[in-house]
Amino acid sequence: MTGPLAGVRVIELGGIGPGPHTGMVLADLGADVVRMRRPGGLTMPAEDRDLLHRGKRIVDLDIKTHQQTLLELVAKADVLLDCFRPGTCERLGIGP
User: What's the total number of domains in the chain?
Assistant: First the structure.
């Protein structure tokens, strides 16, 4: 995809509301957005899902049991979007 954010890699970690919306806007602007989705997690209605996840790549990944894979993906990313409670990213080893 082309756009002002072409070449920018974004990792989006689950959640609802502002996280997926932000990822959608970044994808619309040309960023390579990879959404990490918990296998078997909650799903939203198809029309909302199709809208909010357009232009994204979806990866099913249990970030608690595949923490090394998550760390490798985050290390290659330019942006990390998370919708977790404060302290969660730090516990996962991907926080500031």
Answer: 1
